[in-house]
Amino acid sequence: MGHHAAADQHRRGAADTVGPEQPMRPSTICQTPVCSRQATSPTRAAWRLLDLEAARPLATGAGVTVALIDTGVTPIRGWRTCAGRGLHH
């Protein structure tokens, strides 16, 4: 076994446990949502500008290919891996 292979094997031993290397903590302070007419008026203006109601019947998603990127870290029960010809539920 070469030097690199031995080092890789040593690192893999520590990787047998699942989870973050350090304890997780929030990176920002949680904010309390605010509801008011002032807060929503820009949203209403954008909604009118984009005319999303008229676009909704056209936005079916038909013919759109979607990629699902799965790290394989946590297996999903009932799904096959890519080696099993794709993920199917």
UniProtKB/TrEMBL annotation:
It comes from the Bacteria. Residues 1-14 have a biased composition (Basic and acidic residues). Residues 1-36 are annotated as: Disordered. This is Peptidase S8 and S53, subtilisin, kexin, sedolisin domain protein. It comes from Mycobacterium xenopi 4042.
